[in-house]
Design brief:
The chain is an alpha/beta fold. The chain is built from 21 helices and 26 strands.
């Protein structure tokens, strides 16, 4: 078959409202004389066959425009032509152009070649921010928690509306994306412990501490406003967040706003549309909040209504009910939070900036989610992380683990709804602890140490298998700590979900029990340990992830990034590649054994690279106090030049996205960087009582006016092709 290519259509620099502008790109190595073609299948049955360009290194690309009035699905595929004849086609189903509502898209594909097996080949769709005439679209951005933002009109904590100022700065410097930490409601105890953003009371509700009070309404009580203005200035001048005072002040203010404007606002057409769209989670969440405050505890096991049933909504949430007005207040608050964050997203997208959210791996065990859906959780255990260089005892996060078997019965409907709700506010998301979808580190509540955790799910050992491996196993001796010794002094842990089967206790080589073994038994245990953690479960964990992730990822058009740090099973990269999930590359946590500091030049395209995360010290502290000797970074002092060099290396990397904490961006300026880099750390993961209270030391207004610094960043991004 001979194909005559159509004339190419290149979109212009100006924004054309009447067309959808698409940049197709694919990695494919051709032989001499071969050319790659894009085949567009139009809704009317016609096909356009378009010759693609390439960069000489295996990246093919094509820029195309589609009319907005096209009705129906558009699919496409790739094929190879040699001398005008088709010599090779993709296998499997065709790609489809997702509907994202964006006028500009980047579609990043991989050649479909099934080779006898089913392949999940998701097209990565990025709302098109700008076109830099490079074959690979690449962008840069900033990561910062909402609570850490500081503007001149804040109430002692960052607010959703502050994101507009950050968008202005990002746009002025040529950035493409802003990344936040989770923004869900964490109100549990009305203490500073509610500052922990990864312990939400709802996976759907937004956190009231981020509301801009003045946008809700102008109160008529001038004396109250005067007192609040004085308090606002005092709280906003603090170097760190005083979470308890901020939370109390905002709650008092919201009570006044609800009393004065509640009836009026909840009669509007906009509110009624919001309530109708969110009623499935909003009503039970509001009832949860009411009962939490009524009983003075989020621990619903201590409530009279300890077991949730839909009948409770009929009892408490009817307009004629005695407590309806108190419950309706939470509708009012969530409505205004939704309006403010939705407005921010629209503002960011108009300026060509994407918003990237964060989906925590778990929820608080006393949350509305667990109260409403207890069947979806294992409440006798808590999630955590195995030991690593940052937490040698492992981590225990307090949150229950998921009952994936029960979740699978309705197609993971709770998770799908959670992802779709997030799409209301974000263009991309980071899956916190992606490895939890393969297997989670699960610690029974009866244990005090993260070392007593085990992976769930896992192919545990039977006693006979342990014996067959050469280890003389006795559950009474090796799976129970001897009297008077630490609970960690064991070699095996019995699985509570599958009694009678066992996990090797991780890193048990320092226990007195292990040291008392003869050399033959020690060798046998080492082999079991190695096999269990690095070989035995790989295929099983791959299947476990593939049973869950496709349905969740396909629930929205958001760009998906995975936090794949830590003890990574060998199956993880393959699953991420198949599902087109972007990896996270952190220079101080290399994924190659024996490497101390990774080289950004080696990162894959489908990745997000960064200098540090919220769980780490900032770049300046790492360079001066923590960095091990290496051949990549030779600087010993975190000078402006040294920090700029590290940032520049990341910008020059192949990674699609380079996203840096704001603190690390500021390290490149002697006048804007903080005096004490230790004060810029957000979280210490080994500290379960960490107080999340970091705030910018300068205002966003000042950052936006730092023209010289902003021009320097813009130039860096331009030169790096971002």
């Amino acid at each position: 078959m001979s194909v005559k290519p159509k004339k190419k259509l290149y979109f212009c620099d100006s924004f054309n409202q009447a067309r959808m502008q698409i940049h197709f790109q694919i990695e494919y190595i051709t032989r001499w004389g071969e050319n790659l073609y894009l085949c567009l299948n139009m809704p009317d049955g016609t096909q356009q066959c378009l010759e693609m360009d390439n960069n000489g290194s295996g990246t093919w690309f094509y820029d195309h425009e589609l009319e907005d009035d096209i009705i129906g699905d558009i699919t496409y595929s790739y094929m190879v032509l040699t001398d005008g004849n088709i010599t090779r086609r993709e296998e499997g189903p065709v790609h489809s152009i997702p509907y994202t509502g964006a006028k500009r898209l980047v579609l990043s594909d991989r050649w479909k070649e099934c080779q006898g097996r089913d392949m999940e080949q998701r097209t990565v769709a990025i709302p098109y921010v700008h076109h830099n005439n490079r074959p690979h679209w690449k962008g840069a951005g900033t990561a910062i928690p909402v609570f850490s933002l500081r503007s001149e009109r804040d109430f002692g904590i960052g607010e959703f509306t502050d994101l507009k100022l950050l968008v202005d700065w990002a746009a002025a410097t040529g950035q493409s994306i802003i990344q936040t930490l989770p923004v869900n409601d964490t109100t549990m105890t009305y203490t500073w412990r509610d500052s922990y953003p990864y312990s939400a009371n709802s996976s759907f509700a937004l956190n009231p501490v981020y509301i801009n009070l003045e946008m809700v309404g102008q109160l008529s009580d001038s004396k109250f406003l005067s007192r609040m203005e004085k308090l606002r200035r005092e709280l906003n001048a603090l170097p760190q967040i005083d979470f308890e005072r901020v939370q109390k002040a905002k709650n008092d203010y919201l009570d006044r706003l609800y009393a004065e404007f509640g009836d009026k606002h909840l009669k509007t057409r906009e509110y009624k549309a919001f309530f109708s769209a969110n009623r499935s989670w909003l009503e039970p969440y509001a009832l949860y909040c009411y009962l939490r405050d009524k009983y003075g505890t989020p621990d619903f096991s201590k409530w009279k209504e300890a077991s949730y049933t839909p009948a409770l909504l009929d009892r408490f949430c009817m307009p004629q009910g005695a407590c309806y007005n108190d419950i309706r207040k939470y509708y009012f608050i969530q409505y205004h939070l939704d309006r403010q964050l939705t407005d921010v997203k629209k503002y960011a997208n108009r300026k060509g900036i994407l918003l990237k959210g964060d989906i925590p791996i778990g929820v608080n065990r006393h949350s509305a989610d667990v109260w409403i859906h207890p069947e979806l959780f294992h409440t006798d255990c808590q999630a955590g992380a195995p030991p690593d260089a940052f937490a040698v005892d492992g981590q225990r996060w307090g949150m229950p683990t998921y009952n994936w078997d029960n979740m699978a019965r309705d197609g993971y409907a709770w998770f799908v709804a959670r992802f779709r709700k997030m799409a209301d506010y974000f263009d991309a998301y980071r899956i916190d602890h992606l490895l939890g979808f393969f297997r989670i580190w699960e610690v029974p509540l009866k244990y005090d140490s993260g070392l007593m955790g085990r992976f769930n799910p896992a192919l545990t050992y039977t006693p006979q298998e342990i014996w067959d491996s050469g280890f003389p196993f006795n559950p009474a001796l090796h799976a129970q700590a001897p009297a008077g010794t630490a609970q960690t002094n064991v070699l095996f842990l019995e699985d509570t979900h599958k009694p009678g089967t066992y996990h090797p206790r991780i890193n048990a080589f320092d226990t007195t029990m292990f040291k008392a073994l003869d050399s033959q038994a020690q060798d046998a245990f080492r082999r079991l340990h190695e096999d269990f953690y690095y070989n035995r479960n790989n295929d099983f964990w791959s299947c476990s992830a593939m049973a869950k992730l496709p349905a969740l990822i396909e629930a929205t058009d958001m760009l998906v990034c995975g936090e794949d740090l830590g003890m990574i099973p060998a199956c993880v990269p393959d699953v991420m590649d198949r599902l087109r999930i972007m990896a996270l590359e952190v220079q101080r946590m290399p994924k190659t054994l024996g490497v101390q500091v990774s080289d950004p030049a080696t990162y894959p395209y489908m990745s997000v690279c960064t200098t540090s995360t919220h769980d780490m010290s900032v770049l300046r502290t790492w360079i001066e106090d923590e960095m091990e000797p290496n051949h990549v970074i030779t600087a010993k002092k975190a000078t402006v030049a040294a920090c700029t060099s590290v940032i520049s290396a990341h910008l020059a990397s192949p990674s699609m996205l380079a996203i840096f904490p704001l603190q690390d961006w500021l390290s490149m300026s002697s006048s804007l960087r903080a005096k004490d880099p230790a004060a810029e750390r957000i979280n210490v993961p080994a500290d379960s009582n960490n107080y999340w209270r970091y705030r910018m030391h300068l205002t966003l207004e000042k950052l936006c006016s730092a023209r010289k610094f902003n021009d320097e960043i813009r130039q860096m991004l331009y030169l790096s092709g971002r």
